[in-house]
Structures are given as C-alpha cells and as structure tokens.
Amino acid sequence: MRLKPVRGSGITRAGTKAERGVIELDNVSHSYGDGDLLSNVSLTLAPGAFHFLTGPSGAGKTTFLKICYAELLPSAGGVRLFGGDLRRMDRDQVARTRRRIGVVHQDCRFLDHLPLIDNIALPLLAAGLDPVSERDNIDELLNWVGLRARAGALPPELSGGERQRAALARAVIMAPDVILADEPTGNVDWDMSLRILQLLIELNRMGKTILIATHDLHLIRSAKPLVAARVLRIKDRQLHLAGADL
Amino acid sequence: MNGARRIVRLLRGDPRAGQVVPPSGFTARLTQFTSGAMAFLAVFAMALSFSAGHLAERWSQALARTATVRISAPEGQMEAQTIAVLEVLRTTPGVASARPMSLDEQRALLEPWFGPDLPVETLPLPRMVELTETAEGVDAEALRLRLAGEAPGAVLDDHTRWRRPLVRAADRLRGLGWLSIGLIGAAMAAMITLAANSALAANAQVIEVLRLIGARDSFIARAFVRRFTRRALEGAAIGTALAMLAVAFLPGEGDDGFLSGLGFRGWDWLWPLALPPLAAFVAFWATRFAAFRVLKGVT
Ligand SMILES: Nc1ncnc2c1ncn2[C@@H]1O[C@H](COP(=O)(O)OP(=O)(O)OP(=O)(O)O)[C@@H](O)[C@H]1O
Ligand SMILES: [Mg+2]
C-alpha cells in the first residue's frame, strides 16, 4: 500500500540537513487588500512533525494553509517548500512540489462530474501515472477511509463526512511527505471526527508531516495522549505557540 | 513535421486524461459543425482556384498557337508586301508554318456578316497570312518590328490583345480562391479560439482543482486541446467528403464554358484531402494558445 513514504520522500533527503523544514515560512505577511490578515509570521515544519493550527473563524487559518501549498503567494516574506524558494519556482516546479503536499481542502474541491474513485485517483492521472495499475492501492485506500461501497458515487451525492474522508484519501494517494488538512472534521459527528484523527495520526506514524487547521479544541485535546502534537494559534495576525491551556 | 507528430500523439493519447474536463455536448457539436462548414467552403474555393488555373492555361495555350498577319496596302504593292511578309515569317524563329489565306477562305470568314454573295474580289480587303507557332512560340514584339521594316502595311495580330485580360481575369480568380481558403482558415482559428475560451471559462473551477492537485499546465491544456482538435478534424473530414462528392457530381463535362469546367482533375483531387489535417492543426494551436493564456491566471 502506498501510504508508506515511498515517493520522493523529503524525510530521507532532509536527513543530511536535519534542521531544515519541509515547509518554511519566513516573515510572511498577507493581506487581501484592506490591512494585513497575517503579519510577519514565521514557521518551520520539521519532517515528521504533527501540528494543529487553531484560531477563531476568520483569523486566517485557511489563508495560512493556502500559503503553505502555494495557492496564494503572500504579500511579503519568503516561502520555502522542500528547500526550494517558491518565488524562484516556475509553474511546472510548483505543480511537482504540490504532488508532495496532500491537501484536504475545507470545501473538499472535487470534480463533480467524476465518480469518487476517479476523483481520488486524479492526482495520479495528473502526475502521468496510470490509475489502472494502481487499482489495488486505490481500493485499499477506499477501505481505509471506509468508502469502498461509495466508489462509484458522484461527489454531490456524498454526505459531508463522506466527502471529507474522500478528500483525505485523495490527499494521500500520491504518498506525499506533508499533509495539510483544513477543518477535516468540520462536517462530521464526534465518532467520525475521532476516526479521521486516527487516520491522520496513523499517517504521522508513517513519517508524514501533518498540519491540521481546526477550531475544535475537543479534537486537539483527544489527540494529546496519542501523538506529540504542537498547537499553533493565529491571534492578532500573529502565530503563537499555544501552551498548557489546552 | 514536429507539430503534426504532436497532434497525432495527442489524438491517440490517454482518453482518461481528456475526461478530467466535463463533456460539453453543445459546444462540441457547434465546433464540429463550423469546422465541417468551413471545410466544405474551402473545398469549393479550392475547386474554383484549380478551375481558374486550368482555364487560364487552356486559353493561353489555345490562343497562343495561331496568329494572323493582316496586310493592307495599295493595289500595286499587295503582292510585293505579301512576299516580303512570308519571307520574314520564314526566317522568324518560332514560326512553324505560314500561308496566305485564299480568297475563298476570306469569304468564308466574312460570310456570317455579309452573306454568301459578297463580291470579295472587288473589295479592297486586306490580305491575311495565317501562321502557326511552334511550342516555343514567337517573340511578338520582335516580329512586329521586323514587319514594320520589311512590309509597312503588315499588322501582326497574335490575339494577345484580347487573350491577356481573359488570362489575367482567370489568374485573379485563382488568387482570390486561395485568399478565400486563407480567410476560411483564419475564421476557423478565430471560431475555435472563441469556443475554447468559452469552454475554459465554463471550467474555471475544474482547472483550479487540477492545478491544486499538482497538474502541470500542459496536462490541463491537453485535455482541452485534444477535444477541440478532434472535433475540428472530424467536422472537417465530414465537410470535405461532402464537398468532394458535390464537386464530383457537378453537371457538365467536355463543354468549354467556365461553369462546366468547375471541378478537380487528376491529382487535383488530392488537395482537398489536406484540409482535415490542416483544420486539426489550426484547432490544435488555437486551443493551445487560448488554454495557456487562461492558465497564466491560475496559481
Ligand atoms: N480571496 C479572498 N479575498 C478577500 N478576502 C478573503 C479571501 N479569502 C479570505 N478572505 C478573508 O480573510 C479572512 C480570513 O479568511 P480565512 O478563510 O483564512 O479564515 P479561517 O481562519 O480559515 O476561517 P474559518 O475558521 O471560518 O474557516 C476572512 O475575513 C475572509 O473573509
Ligand atoms: Mg478556513
């Protein structure tokens, strides 16, 4: 199964330079036009680390993640992905870099005309790989997120929780080094939230770097005994390391 | 050609890569139809060009082969000048043969206008010398100069006076035919660009998602390019086939008129076969251009 860090692992490569992060933000500021939403934020995601990102609605969590996978170029500051300066990358390099970052988008972002299984296999197709030869991996992945029976359904026919699990499956299909999840438990009941959390912890144990944006403090608390997670909070346009109050 | 190979590879390539863009039935059929209609028109423009070309050729050939020298001279000098003209023609390169027309022949020429009873003998008619040219032809200007020196009453009529405008008109027609083909091609490129742009705009979300999951621009562009190239090729193939049938079954054969000569001959028939690949080529570049322009605006 492809959930092992087999493809272009930044972890082994980072071994020569242990302190280097897979995603590094250096004094990043961003504004959508009227005033800074983020101001001089710096962060280094070390390989294999597990982070939560929290903060009130509208604080800029999604914006922060978008900067991390290069959907947004920040107004100021430097972004390095796997050691490469984002501003120096051409469009093809950005595309290749994104294949190493699995993203669970807050709104999932599926292609509504394709059945679930094709949506999950889409990153393979886009990377020039043959989804047919990966059929076993895809099936296993569907089992893992409990969606095997829904493989042929179109995304609009899925429940919120099913969509989020499917998004997780798509995020990991390329065996990425990093997984960024934006409110991955936003639409699901508590049991399902825990299951999704379990899946992400499982991925972390395989060596993946994980960053989860969530405003669900219960989720963060229930993760504490299971994984050595750090909690970041966006407050007053800054990134803070949350302490024992959680 | 590198471009042609790319198009073939594209059309043969992985069909699943094309499915990442949702099907767009209506634009598809519209593109196909327009491409077909354009190809149909292009075949006719081509037929027009070829016919005009053949016509110009036939006219110049048929008319260039004969000429006449008309001698108007006072009664006493007619014989001497006729002999002088014949002598000049005998030594002119490009003249195969020359002979004076008999009175009977001249009468036959005039009969349609004056009736059979015209007393030709009593009229001060000019003398006519008919000459046939060899394949190389005669240098008419040089011959004129020599005739003016040797026989001042002799006038060379090589039919160029009325042949030239006809040939020029036919040549112009041929040029216009090719220009029309060029315009048809340009119109098709414009139309496919419009259709591709509308398809790209309608699929902005799809393009965004594809970029976010790590698709390169060329992968996304290919999905669109493949589709439009294929439609253009299919449409043009159908349009070309129909137009070729229509040209083949145009009535009239053998007659010398212009309309009955409209059509292809021999190897001409191969030319329309170039239209479908040409349409595919135009569609390929038009869509590719449109796609990369749109992709520039997506992160
Ligand atoms: N494309 C955009 N253009 C302008 N403003 C934007 C844009 N995207 C987000 N914003 C604004 O930026 C602020 C932060 O948005 P963001 O989505 O990052 O918040 P968030 O922390 O993820 O919130 P939530 O918890 O509700 O998901 C919000 O006020 C939002 O309205
Ligand atoms: Mg958000």
Topology of helices and strands:
The complex is a heterodimer of chains A (246) and B (299).
Chain A: H1 10-14, E1 23-31, E2 36-45, E3 50-54, H2 61-68, E4 76-81, E5 84-85, H3 91-98, E6 101-104, H4 116-126, H5 135-144, H6 160-172, E7 178-182, H7 190-205, E8 209-213, H8 217-223, E9 230-235, E10 238-241
Parallel strand pairs in A: 3-8, 3-9, 6-7, 7-8
Antiparallel strand pairs in A: 1-2, 1-4, 4-5, 9-10
Helix pairs in contact in A: 4-6
Chain B: H1 2-12, H2 15-19, H3 25-64, E1 66-71, H4 78-90, E2 95-100, H5 103-114, E3 127-133, H6 140-150, E4 154-157, H7 160-202, H8 204-212, H9 217-248, H10 275-295
Antiparallel strand pairs in B: 1-3, 1-4, 2-3
Helix pairs in contact in B: 3-7, 3-9, 4-6, 7-9, 7-10, 9-10
The structure holds adenosine-5'-triphosphate and magnesium ion (MG).
Written description of the protein model:
Chain B: This is Cell division transport system permease protein. The complex is a heterodimer of chains A (about 250) and B (about 300). With about 250 residues, chain A is of the alpha/beta class. Chain A has two domains: about 20-100 and about 175-240, Rossmann fold (3-Layer(aba) Sandwich), CATH 3.40.50.300; about 110-175, no CATH class. Chain A has helices at about 10-15, 60-70, 90-100, 115-125, 135-145, 160-170, 190-205, 215-225, and strands spanning about 25-30, 35-45, 50-55, 75-80, 85, 100-105, 180, 210-215, 230-235, 240. In chain A, β4 and β5 form a beta hairpin. The longest helix of chain A has 16 residues, at about 190-205. Chain A is globular, with a radius of gyration of 17 Å. Mean pLDDT of chain A is about 85; it is low at about 1-20. Chain B folds into two domains: about 1-55 and about 170-295, no CATH class; about 75-150, no CATH class. The longest helix of chain B has about 45 residues, at about 160-200. Chain B is rod-shaped, with a radius of gyration of 32 Å. The interface between A and B is medium-sized, with 30 and 20 residues. Adenosine-5'-triphosphate binds near residues 37 and 61 of chain A. Magnesium ion (MG) binds next to α2 of chain A.
